[in-house]
Specification:
heterotrimer, A alpha/beta (238), B mainly alpha (126), C mainly alpha (248), A: 238 residues, alpha/beta, Rossmann fold, six-stranded mixed β-sheet, four-stranded antiparallel β-sheet, 32% helix, C: 248 residues, mainly alpha, 2 domains, 8 helices, 0% strand, globular
């Protein structure tokens, strides 16, 4: 179980996360929702150990997140991060070198499904190809935790279906999978829990099917309600 | 399959499977996809897929045999009853919408007969 | 650790390739000059080779710091910091890569130097004078008699002081990066920190070992040990700051 206990993260005077207590259990696919700057990325980085919380604790299987938890946690950032001198193949080799749970055969299969040639140089990738490759290499790990930050960003419609399917494939009863996306509709069918973060605070978390049954609201509808008071800013939710 | 995100997804998938059972695309005793396969087939959450079979099983429309998989009920009468129930629900909804248009029952029935004569619609060949 | 080292070497190979290319060009010029007895070319090439011999190891060292800076301040850093490794291992691999690279470069350059000097002297039939000349020069400069221990100690001392310099550079860059978070002048600030800390370290050493100046052997040893201690302290300090203030 991946857990944050009263986690607060401050950057100078900015409070990115404010006393957030959140537990992610295996066997679920979580949609982390909120506009830009709400704290979703910060939470994921804390869960990976790329940041240390200003206050509170970040725990994986009961122990503070750190070097060892990264063996189990696969994080995919929004931004591209591969070394420009690498190829698709050598990126896979890098992951294989550092992560025991990396499956080279699965990586090859995912690259093929997403129409990416192994010889492609990172510096020649278009933003769409880069986005696909990030997802491919992250989901090629057979990790216990997947934290995907905007996995659908910059990806064409057909490839998005492909990625949704790959996400469903990667999830099982032992896996914690959390993803954040502005494309809320893409996550409607594959997520089963929605976590709403607003201005650094956890405002709501709910079981989607139960919400649909009881209120007749979709995740997108609830999103609009939760963030209504933040003004016309979030035009990305269509 | 395009889902209506305002209604429970498990129900929509279950309905699709029910339609398959009733139309004969899934025959009594046929083996259904595993939960994982179902999730991948429809690109839905695995827990949702599990719920689909749970609910179908509660309705007696399928049964899970340990280690072998989930199977459509072999009981043809159950399927017939399902067909009747689904048809009746469709019919009720249809009639009520016709009435919303302001037609009386008599007028509605007359229209159906006229349409039937102009273009007879038999059971689908599928 | 092995994997970290593998990729640290990979990251720096382009800088080394440039250095190799440079030496190849200069060496070719020297050899051609010797072959065709073109003393102008020989002189020119020799001068540049000597210059390169001092500048290139420094450049390789600086390249490593640039790579560290990039790892700490750009998204590329995720590659490094998302792995199941801690900052001590990550920085340790960088220090080792830097030390090994510079050592190998130094040895290669020294060998090249020996080769070139031999070639030049051989070409002009002065080989016999060579060793005599060298001994006189070294003796004149350091008032030492040549013996193996002293030479080894000298090289050890150089190695230690390089390690210290490397760690000062890494510490300075990490400190600057954690304060400025990669903003515009972090490189400049890192350089300033580097100068300041280097001065502090040498001043401290100067005061501590002033009295030992008379005895050359113990001076070398003390200098080496002092540099090593500073290097280790700075390494742990840098890794600790990196760990605490990490924010790629």
């Amino acid at each position: 179980m991946l857990e944050s206990r009263e986690v607060t993260m401050r950057f100078g005077s900015t409070v990115a996360l404010d006393h957030v207590t959140l537990r992610l259990e295996p066997g679920h696919i979580y949609a982390l929702l909120g506009p830009n700057g709400s704290g979703k990325t910060t939470w994921m980085k804390l869960a990976t150990g790329l940041l240390h919380p200003t206050e509170g604790q970040m725990l994986w299987k009961g122990e503070t997140v750190g070097m060892h938890s990264r063996e189990d946690v696969a994080y995919m950032s929004t931004e591209p991060f591969f070394y420009p001198w690498m190829t698709a193949k050598s990126v896979g080799k890098y992951y294989e070198d550092f992560f025991a749970d990396f499956d080279p055969a699965r990586y090859e299969d995912l690259l093929r499904r997403m129409d990416l040639a192994p010889g492609l140089k990172v510096k020649n990738l278009s933003s769409g190809m880069m986005a696909k490759m990030k997802v491919a290499v992250t989901l090629a790990r057979r990790a216990k935790v997947y934290l995907l930050d905007e996995p659908f960003n910059g990806i064409d419609l057909l490839a998005r279906d492909q990625i949704a399917r790959t996400i469903v494939e990667a999830a099982d009863s032992d896996t914690v999978l959390a993803m954040s996306s502005h494309l809320v509709e893409e996550m409607e069918a594959i997520a089963d829990w929605a976590v709403f973060i607003k201005q650094g605070r956890l405002v709501e978390s709910c079981d989607l099917e139960t919400m649909r049954q009881r209120t007749g609201l979709s995740m997108a509808d609830r999103y609009r309600q939760v963030y209504a008071d933040l003004g016309a800013g979030d035009k990305e939710v269509l | 399959m395009n889902f209506d995100p305002m209604l429970p997804i498990w129900a929509q998938v279950a309905d699709a499977l029910k339609r398959d059972m009733v139309s004969g695309r899934l025959k009594p005793g046929d083996r259904l996809l595993s939960t994982r396969e179902l999730a991948l087939r429809f690109t839905i959450n695995p827990n949702t897929a599990a719920r689909v079979y749970q609910e179908l099983e509660n309705s007696g429309l399928c049964e899970t045999r340990r280690g072998l998989g989930t199977f459509v009920t072999a009981d043809a009468e159950r399927i017939a009853a399902l067909r009747a129930a689904m048809a009746e629900e469709l019919l009720r909804g249809f009639l009520s919408r016709l009435q919303d248009l302001g037609l009386t029952r008599g007028e509605a029935l007359a229209m159906i007969e006229a349409a039937e004569q102009a273009q007879p619609a038999g059971p689908s060949e599928e | 650790m092995k994997m970290l080292l593998k990729y640290e070497f990979r990251k720096s190979w382009s800088a080394k390739l440039i250095a190799l290319g440079l030496f190849a060009v200069l060496e070719a010029a020297l050899l051609l000059g010797l072959l065709f007895d073109h003393s102008r070319t020989v002189g020119f090439a020799t001068g540049l080779l000597v210059f390169a011999a001092f500048v290139v190891p420094m450049a390789i060292g600086i390249a490593s710091v640039v790579i560290l800076h990039r790892d700490m301040n750009s998204k590329q850093g995720y590659m490094l910091f998302m792995t199941p490794r801690n900052c001590y291992q990550i920085l340790g691999a960088k220090v080792i890569e830097n030390g090994v690279s510079v050592l190998l470069a130094g040895v290669a350059i020294a060998l090249l130097g020996v080769l070139d000097v031999t070639l030049v002297f051989a070409r002009y039939n002065l080989l016999d004078d060579l060793w005599e000349q060298l001994s006189k020069i070294i003796e004149a400069f350091t008032h030492l008699s040549i013996d193996r221990t002293t030479v080894l100690l000298f090289f050890f001392s150089v190695l230690c002081s390089w390690l210290c310099t490397v760690n000062i550079a890494y510490f300075a860059d990490i400190l600057s990066s954690s304060i400025l978070r990669g903003k515009k002048f972090s490189g400049l600030v890192a350089f300033i920190f580097f100068i300041v800390i280097s001065l502090l370290v040498s001043r401290l050493g100067f005061f501590a070992f002033e009295s030992l100046n008379r005895k050359p052997v113990s001076y070398l040893l003390a200098d080496a040990v002092y540099s090593l201690v500073c290097a280790v302290a700075l390494y742990f300090g840098a890794a600790a700051i990196m760990d605490r203030n990490l924010n790629v």
